Structures are given as structure tokens and as C-alpha cells.
Amino acid sequence: MNDVLTFGETMIALRGSGPLKLGGSLDISIAGAESNVAIGLTRLGHPVRWAGAVGDDEAGQLVLRTLRAEGVDLGAATVDPGAPTGLMLFEPRLPDLTRVHYYRAGSAGSRLSPEAIERAFAAASPRLLHLTGITPALGPAPRAAADRALRLAREAGVQVCLDVNYRSRLWDSAVAGEVMRSWAPYVDVLIASDDELPLAAPASAGSELADQVKPLLDLGIREVVVKLGAGGARVHTATGELHRPARTVRVVDPVGAGDAFVAGYLSALLDDAELPARLDRAVTTGAFAVASHGDWEGAPTRAELPLLSAESGTVLR
Ligand code: ATP
């Protein structure tokens, strides 16, 4: 049985080294919030099933080959002959500013069907379903697929983690808020940046963080986890709150920190670790991500988790 079921769009990712309009060469990899989490969890030793869709093309083959090589279960993944795999271009424009360009409208990921998710559940119920707020922004089909997943999880007693992951380029915040609020009653673990929390909180909630967290906990969400970037993270529960500062690392690429953080948090949750240990693992995997190039490439294995505590300049022979 898989510990985790997740799905969403994974694209082919091309990375330049400067302004794209000047040409030059691009590195080729894959990227997708949910598959980043899947890889992070698999590296930490958890069996994970990814049930997304790719096109019947070479880009789709790269997505599947990479996930397979990482040990992610693809038994419920779909190859859609009627649409291409999505594409994203990373353009590091300034040392601390990267532009991302998406070519994903009409992609296979935007046509993921509720039936595919039913098949993914039918094989065996996972212990946990992980969704992000990106999937419903891709179109009516993936939104219906995610709605179906939430209902199936509820029926099967599967706990649900939702990372709000708001993408302003994909949809309007009012629509995103409507969907996130309709999902909130199904969620056990809600993960968001502090500026994303208002999207999930009831429209009547005040503007202070505490005003937004309380109604979410009252809805039955067990843990509200707030990512605070270089400020670390905080978890709120019905019995209180807990903060962990970020781990000190040299930042080389901030992309993917949120997904890596989620993988660490869920890994410790699946290990039945207490809240402090969940946050500790989450800030550790988040720090690995910012200290490594790429979205998921630097995700640690379980044995590598203590490496961040090594002295600067350490060489392991
Ligand atoms: P992204 O969308 O780029 O993946 P995010 O906004 O979802 O990121 P962040 O809050 O930026 O997520 O980062 C997630 C976690 O990663 C933070 O809670 C923190 O633990 C860790 N992290 C982020 N930035 C740093 C940093 N500069 N140094 C160390 N750890 C960091």
C-alpha cells in the first residue's frame, strides 16, 4: 500500500542562465509541485503514488522516466494522446530574481479526469492524500478530479493535506478563495504561506493571522501550517502554536522550498512523529531545497538529513 496519493501537473522544465531572449543553452528537467513532494517523500523512504497526466510525447516520457527513477509509483498515471505535456521556462534574470514562463494551456495535465483519480483510489486507499491549489486552477477537469479525490478520501477515512500554493498567473484570487474555502472542510493539514491563508479562511475572518487560523481550526482542520520563508514556519492546532526558525544555509536557488518543506512535514507525520519533530524535518528539507539548484534535485534521503548540521567546509571521505 502507498503511504501517499498525490496528483497534479508535472511539466518539462527548461532552465536558462540569463535573459532568454538572448538565446544560449537550456538545462532540461521536470517540475510540478505535487511530483516535487512525491520525490521528496520517496527519497525519505515513503511509498508514494503520483496519478497525474502527461502527453504521449518525449517530454511526457521524461516526466515518467524521472519519476520512475526516483521510485514514485506510476501505476495510476495517465498518458493522454490528445494533448501535449506542459512546458515551463525558468529565466534567472537577476541573482535574486527568476522569471517563470508557462506553456501549459490545453496540456495533458489540464485534462486530468475524475475517472483517473477513481482508478488511483480503487487500487488501494493511501494513508494520506496530498493536493495543491494549483490543480483546480488548471481547468474544469482537474478541478473535478480534485473534488472527487476529496470525497473519496472522506469516504475511505484517508487524511488530507492541502498546500494552498496560490498561482496568480493561473487564476483570480476571488475564484481561488471560493475553491479553497469549499475544500477546507475536507482538510486535515492545511499548509500555506502567511499571505495565502486568507484564501482558505472564511471571507468574514479578520485580517490578523490569528483571526484567520481560528475559524480554520473550528472547521475541523487539525493542523494549520504557515510557511514563513527565511523566517521558518509555524504550526497552529486547537491546543496552541509552535514556531521553528529556518535552518541556516547558503541560498543558491529558492525555487521548490515550499514543496520540499511539505515533503519533510508529511514524512514526519507519516512516521507518527510529534509536532516539533514534524516542523524540524520540514525546515530541514526546506533548507536543503534552497541550498540546492533545481526544484527537487537536492531533496535529501533519510540518511542525508543530518548533513545540514555539519560544519561549513566539511568534506566527508
Ligand atoms: P516556493 O513557492 O518558492 O517553493 P514557498 O513560498 O512555498 O516557496 P517558503 O516559505 O519560501 O515556501 O519556504 C518553505 C520553507 O523552506 C520555509 O518555511 C523554511 O523552512 C525553508 N526556507 C525558505 N527559505 C529559506 C532560507 N532562505 N533559508 C533556510 N530555509 C528556508
Automatic annotation (TrEMBL):
| TM helices/strands, residue ranges | none
| Keyword Manganese annotated | no
Domain (Carbohydrate kinase PfkB) spans 1-301
An example of a GO molecular function for this protein is: ATP binding
The domain of life for this entry's organism is: Bacteria
Q: Which InterPro entries match?
A: Carboh/pur_kinase_PfkB_CS, PfkB_Carbo_kinase, PfkB_dom, Ribokinase-like
Which PROSITE patterns does this one have?
Answer: PFKB_KINASES_2
Keyword vocabulary terms for this entry: ATP-binding, Kinase, Nucleotide-binding, Transferase
Gene3D superfamilies according to UniProt: 3.40.1190.20
A Pfam family: PfkB
Q: What is the similarity comment for this entry?
A: Belongs to the carbohydrate kinase PfkB family.
Q: What is this protein called?
A: Sugar kinase
Q: Which organism is it from?
A: Nocardia terrae
